[in-house]
Amino acid sequence: MLKTKMGVSIALVGAAMYFLGAIAFTPAVLLAGAMLIMEDNQWVKRQAAKMIGVVIVFSLLGIAIGWIDDVVNVLNIIVHWFAKDAKYLSIPGNIESLLRTIIGAAEEVLLVVMGFMALKMKEIRFGVVDKLLDRFMNNNQ
């Protein structure tokens, strides 16, 4: 069984990073940062970078959802420049909140599943994050 310099199994540390990512971002980033700086094992470094990447992707999705209301407001302003009596556009049934809830749940489920996979030293490919890691990290596992 491979161990980190702290004497803990790399599989357990990899899983802990994903589980922490689902629970609280700050401790997850601190643990991932420690692994990226201190460890020599490429697998655990990749898992650290991957966890951070997954959390960032879901955060960017949340930001994009926040733009929905902003875009509708801008469209309303533009329409009312030209037609003062036009009806205002609106987002039905607080869809922004629904989308945020769905994305938040998907992120948590994905991170927990990735954590359990890490316990077996396996991983789930996550499109854009894995492509970036393949391109910018030493891929010798």
Give structural attributes.
single chain, 141 residues, mainly alpha, 0% strand, elongated
Question: Could you explain the architecture of this structure?
Answer:
- The chain is mostly helical and 141 residues long.
- The chain is built from 5 helices and no strands.
- It has one domain (10-134).
- Helix content is 74%, strand content 0%.
- α1 packs antiparallel against α2 (25-38).
- The chain is elongated, with a radius of gyration of 20 Å.
Structure at a glance:
This protein has 141 residues and is mainly α.
Number of helical runs?
A: 5
Secondary-structure element sequence? HHHHH
* Mean model confidence by pLDDT: 90
> Proportion of β residues?
under 5%
Q: What is the fold's blueprint, element by element?
A:
Layout: H1 10-23, H2 25-38, H3 42-82, H4 95-119, H5 127-136
Helix pairs in contact: 1-2, 1-3, 1-4, 2-3, 3-4
